[in-house]
């Protein structure tokens, strides 16, 4: 009896923290037309002529700061654990493969293994809770581009988003309890940022997105595919699970690139405002990531933590990502079997 195929896909990581490998990773990542959604010629000039030549060595130093001598990249390490634990949970009726959208292990190699074993169908689970064209959409496009030449194509389905998955929400809330959240002055839900132009492209009405303040605060039929609205909804659900009132937390967005306006408020600005308001201790979630990575381990803990202290704050505490949480493996199992 043929197995069912499950393909887990995370964003990606350099093969090593060397400048050469980081440059290779950045080139593949930033040349994706869904990541930098401008004219291909302009994108090539920006990425290969400006961004990677100047950012590769700087980013390599950041990766070196978080790279473990034994396990390497945190994102790849935890992604492998999630793959292993899900395979154990699902048993022999399923074949689970892990891939990265950029670099290795590649989506193409993972799909070929599923094809070689004649799986009856393939369910693709992009490991991004909130849908964005630059993440989930890119994975979907890549998978469809690769299988379009197959002579026999099995049933293929995609998990579009799981921003409101109750098991994921519970896992984040339980991770926070380790840090005694009641001892913090304020809680931040810091999501990965996106350019505003990409958010607007998801508004098929052309008359809703960013037309008024608070358009993303509540998820509705018009903005249900909006990354920002899904992010606010994730934050709301985690806060409710923790019994956290609305005035005790702020939703913000990190990891900007370039000068165009991105989704706001920016995490760096919120950190500054928190310090000016006299807050001393901040608890920070990063619910756009299911595995700890450069954006959580370094950007939040080191960069934002350092900025906060320089402004008079005392401590920024990162709430660990889902990593090898049993509750998150429960969530993946449920998605795989749905």
3D architecture notes:
It is a single chain. The chain is an alpha/beta fold and 338 residues long. It has two domains: 4-162 and 326-337, Rossmann fold; 166-318, Rossmann fold, CATH 3.40.50.1400. The protein is built from eleven helices and eight strands. The strands form two sheets. The chain has a four-stranded parallel sheet, with helices on both faces. The protein has a four-stranded parallel sheet with strand order 6-5-7-8, sandwiched between helices. Helix 1 (19-30) crosses helix 2. Keywords: Cytoplasm, Heme biosynthesis, Iron, Lyase, Metal-binding, Porphyrin biosynthesis. It is found in: Cytoplasm. It comes from Mucilaginibacter ximonensis. Fe(2+) binds at residues 192, 295. Its main location: cytoplasm.
Short description:
The protein is an alpha/beta fold. The protein is built from eleven helices and eight strands.
Q: What characteristics describe this protein?
A:
metal-binding; Rossmann fold; cytoplasm; 4-stranded parallel sheet; Ferrochelatase; 11 helices; 338 residues; alpha/beta; globular
Dominant shape: globular
- Strand-and-helix sequence, N→C? EHHHEHEHEHEHHEHEHEH
Tally of individual helices: 11
Question: What's the count of strands?
Answer: 8
CATH topology descriptor of the largest domain = Rossmann fold
Overall mean pLDDT stands at 96
**Uncertain residue segments:** none
Protein structure class: alpha/beta
Question: Helices and strands in order, then pairings?
Answer:
Blueprint lengths: L3 E9 L6 H12 L9 H27 L7 H17 L3 E9 L4 H10 L4 E6 L6 H15 L7 E4 L7 H12 L8 E7 L3 H6 L25 H16 L6 E6 L12 H10 L4 E5 L8 H17 L4 E4 L7 H12 L1
Parallel strand pairs: 1-2, 1-3, 3-4, 5-6, 5-7, 7-8
Helix pairs in contact: 1-2, 3-11, 6-8, 6-11, 9-10
């Amino acid at each position: 009896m043929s197995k069912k195929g499950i393909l887990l896909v995370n964003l990606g990581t350099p093969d090593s923290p060397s400048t050469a490998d980081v440059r290779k990773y950045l080139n593949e990542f930033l040349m994706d037309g869904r990541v930098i959604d401008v004219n291909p010629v302009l994108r090539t000039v920006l990425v290969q002529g400006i961004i990677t030549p100047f950012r590769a060595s700087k980013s390599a130093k950041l990766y070196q700061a978080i790279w473990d001598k034994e396990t390497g990249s945190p994102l790849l390490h935890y992604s492998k654990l999630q793959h292993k634990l899900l395979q154990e949970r699902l048993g022999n009726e399923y074949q689970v493969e892990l891939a990265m959208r950029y670099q290795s292990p590649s989506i193409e190699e993972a799909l070929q293994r599923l094809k070689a074993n004649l799986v009856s169908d393939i369910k693709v689970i992009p490991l991004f809770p909130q849908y964005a064209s630059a993440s989930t959409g890119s994975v979907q496009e890549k998978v469809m581009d690769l299988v379009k030449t197959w002579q026999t194509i099995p049933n293929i389905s995609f998990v579009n988003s799981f921003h409101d998955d109750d098991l994921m929400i519970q896992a984040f809330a339980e991770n926070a309890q380790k840090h005694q959240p009641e001892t913090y002055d304020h809680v931040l839900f810091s999501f990965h940022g996106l350019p505003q132009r990409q958010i607007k492209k998801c508004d098929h009405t052309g008359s809703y997105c960013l037309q008024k303040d608070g358009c993303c605060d509540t998820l509705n039929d018009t903005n249900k595919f909006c990354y920002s609205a899904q992010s606010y909804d994730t934050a709301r659900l985690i806060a409710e699970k923790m019994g956290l009132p609305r005035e005790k937390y702020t939703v913000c967005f990190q990891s900007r690139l370039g000068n165009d306006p991105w989704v706001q408020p920016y995490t760096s600005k919120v950190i500054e405002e928190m310090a000016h308001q006299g807050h001393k201790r901040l608890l920070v979630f990063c619910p756009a990531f299911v595995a700890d990575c450069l954006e959580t381990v370094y950007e939040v803990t080191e960069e934002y933590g350092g900025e906060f202290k320089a402004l008079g704050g005392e401590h920024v505490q990162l709430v660990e990502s889902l990593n090898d949480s049993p509750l998150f493996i429960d969530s993946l199992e449920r998605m795989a079997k749905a």
